[in-house]
């Protein structure tokens, strides 16, 4: 209402102007009050909710005049829980203070009154809530260019430089150890003390690492952390809509903003949500409110759920499997999460897509796609299979919100398996890790950043611990790289006619192995072979469960074998060479069959093998997993010294042996289990160390193949035996 002063008259135009001024004043005070409220740490929100069967309004409340906050005494009615998938999700947050319900004030009322008002509010409720204002984001770093001058070289610029030792990365082992105890260590924390040693600006990274490595069983750290550590949830290159599907994109406020980018191949799109892992710092699910602070919690002894049985909503068992059939129209229109460990889940469905029309929804677990079972399928494999389908798609799905939430929150890993590499990757693509043949990785994401091409992994280091996080080529790229590497090696080895002729003759060695002279055996030792392994072999860490064969390589290999058989005949035995003829006078063929090795293992002894390094790969493929120990000599003098006193028939050129060993280490180093360096210091102890290494290695776990192969004498191992050279 507008009040006129005595004697004041207004025409229509003047009255309109006064109304405009009045509206402006109201708007000013409204904005001012909001600003003042925000500055005081609170914001006011108006929320409209519809009651949904089975959910009610999807909230629980606590507090009240008779049940105030246990610490601060605040009597406000507060939201104590918001159900996932309920009507209040993404609208209300835990610890929102309810000011009014459908215009009925709830400030300073008893708990029972708040319950009554909510229950009697009908099918729709309009809430006015107060919410803590989010903390202002940290100021973005600013790049400043400046210049300092000095009058001469003896004068400084007036600044002193220093460096800090900080936590660059945390492995899962450290996180799992710290989290239960409530201790927090974050990437970026600055270390000020390691055990009892202060970390100063003058300390180098090498010195700090040396301090850490010198610790025996316990490492004590003192760290400093910025007071404001704001973790910003970003989507990186992710797109927040389905714009690549249609000319007019559909955007989704809140719930779709954190979904991953579409994966595109051959003009088709299948949308996949980036995976989660327990240590992930970013959550790819719709943004959740930050955890309430300790002073925000209300007593939970009295809560309200708007429907009977709502307390069991969280632990509701999965529904019955159902069939979803639709015709593929360009794209599948899905986002997927999960993987081989958890199962594959639908995390997003494009509205108006055929799948959505048939009732497919987020939290559906995909059990079967057409005739393909999805158990144990990685997320990448699921994506590629769905993209490969044409026309009709039949899905068997099961709505499993609890399992889905565990995957989405990072409690359950999606993809999780280990691989052993069988090729060298020494010149990686930018951003990827290099590796050598025989390295082991823990794969935790087969669709890194929502696109096909790279796997996110942890490198497995000594003691089988995760030591480095990064990315490596996916399976398809790895197979291409491994094939190209083999072809390049084969071409290089076929560079001269002599070697080319040798490799051609080598194809029939099992029929005429007697023709291999000493010079040819040297080439066999150092040559490559076609590996039967895939580029990445799926492996698990396990006990071998059998007595492993032993292979000794290097300059003293023949001496070591003879001594092991002579001095430890109760633990070692040499397999017999195969004779292809029934005539007892026939000479051995130089071929060792797996059945001969197996018979020794069954007697509880190590089969001591004299075979070429490329035969080690065949033994590993047959899953015999030999213990390979390389006797390394740094110079020819130590070889000559250790071989002195041997029979004349065992005399060999020290120089030639050294060259062969160096070449062997360079080409076949990845098959070595252990290396013993021969030197003046261990002339009398190297043999005892060899026995100890074999015994200790036998008791240790090793990475073995996930799948079993048939090994019934189908693989032949060619023995390196100088007696074969005699006519």
TrEMBL record:
Location of the Guanylate kinase-like domain: 593-695
GO molecular function: cell adhesion molecule binding
GO cellular component terms listed in the entry, alphabetical order: bicellular tight junction; plasma membrane
Segments of this protein annotated with the region Disordered: 278-298
Domain of life: Eukaryota
Domain PDZ: 46-133, 145-227, 328-401
This protein's record includes keyword Protein transport: no
Keywords: SH3 domain
One of the GO BP terms on file: cell-cell junction organization
Pfam families recorded: Guanylate_kin, PDZ, SH3_2
Listed name of the protein: (African queen) hypothetical protein
Organism encoding this protein: Danaus chrysippus
